Amino acid sequence: MTELTELDGESSILLLSPSMHSETDDVCLDLLSQESPERENVLWVTFTRSPDGCVQDWLGHVGERPANLRFVSVGETVRSAASSSPVQETPADAVIETLSNPGDLTGLGIKISEVLQQWQNDGNRTVACFHSLTALLQYADVQTVYKFLHVLTGRFATAGVTAHFHLDPAAHDDQTINTLKSLFDAVAEFDDGEWSVRTR
Questions:
Q1: Is the dihedral of CA 25, 11, 131, 140 positive or negative?
Q2: CA atoms within 13 Å, Cβ hemisphere of 171
Q3: What is the pLDDT of residues 122-175, one digit of tens each?
Q4: How does DSSP classify residue 37?
Q5: What is the pTM of this model?
Q6: What percent helix, strand, coil does the chain show, rounded to 5?
Q7: Which of these, 19, 1, 21, 44, lies nearest to 134 by C-alpha position?
Q8: Cis peptide bond upstream of 132, omega within 30
Q9: Cα–Cα distance between 35 and 26 in angstroms, integer?
Q10: CA 66 from centre of chain
Q11: Which of 119, 129, 172, 180 sits a CA distance of 20 to 30 A from 166?
Q12: pLDDT value at position 90?
């Protein structure tokens, strides 16, 4: 954790940074690998990235698979995963839940809750990546997303999960960003080549 040493135990973290950027990817993987892999459960909620790509990035960063790996793959990635690669190419120990309608926040919340329930008493640390709020906001308005995140971040906190959420500031107006910022324990922003962190 070279870049974000200010973070210490926050349950929900908003990453304000460009979507396709190596710095963003590095920090994402740092936040997902705070324990040794054999003691971690990793949940990836992804709208824009394929599970296979996420696993390759993880292995390149960490070197070995986590104890448990679960994806909730939403919308476009579901179709691209289905059409471009046979199921057996998916890493054997990664379970993939799919949700074809990206605007179905109730369904998404249920799938995430089910995963947390299954991992509840396994003794591992659970970490989560939500990639990304920018994609989610294409399918639901800010107030709907706010309510969804209010419940979800509370659920993560109750379950002892460390979760971070990606948001590309260039894609949203200030009002949207400020509305969502208020939900998180910490906001890490990448600007002019530097990360700054604000915690509440």
A1: negative
A2: 15
A3: 999 999 999 999 999 999 999 999 999 999 999 999 999 999 999 999 999 999
A4: G
A5: 0.92
A6: 45, 25, 30
A7: 19
A8: yes
A9: 16
A10: 15
A11: 119
A12: 52
Tokens of 100: 């074809």
Contacts of 144 (CB under 8 A, 6+ apart): 105
The C-alpha atoms of residue 40 and residue 199 are separated, in whole angstroms, by 24
Topology of domain 12-199, CATH: Rossmann fold (3.40.50)
Q: Where are the domains of the chain?
A: 12-199
Long-range interactions of 149-156: CB distance < 8 A, separation 24+: 149/180, 149/183, 150/183, 151/109, 152/109, 152/112, 153/11, 153/12, 153/183, 153/184, 155/109, 155/112, 155/113, 155/116, 156/11, 156/12, 156/116, 156/128
Amino acid at residue number 129? C
Give the SS3 label for residue 99. strand
Is residue 95 within 8 A of residue 71, CB to CB? The reply is yes
pLDDT tens per residue across span 18-36: 987 888 999 999 999 989 9
Distance, in Å, from the CA atom of 179 to the CA atom of 25, rounded to the nearest integer, reads: 24
Burial 119-148 (b: 16+ CB within 10 A, else e): beeeebbbbbbbbbbbbbbebbeeeebeeb
Q: Which token pair is 37?
A: 């892999």
Beta bridge partners of 163: 12, 128
Q: What is the pLDDT of residue 3?
A: 58
Percent of the chain with pLDDT over 90: 78
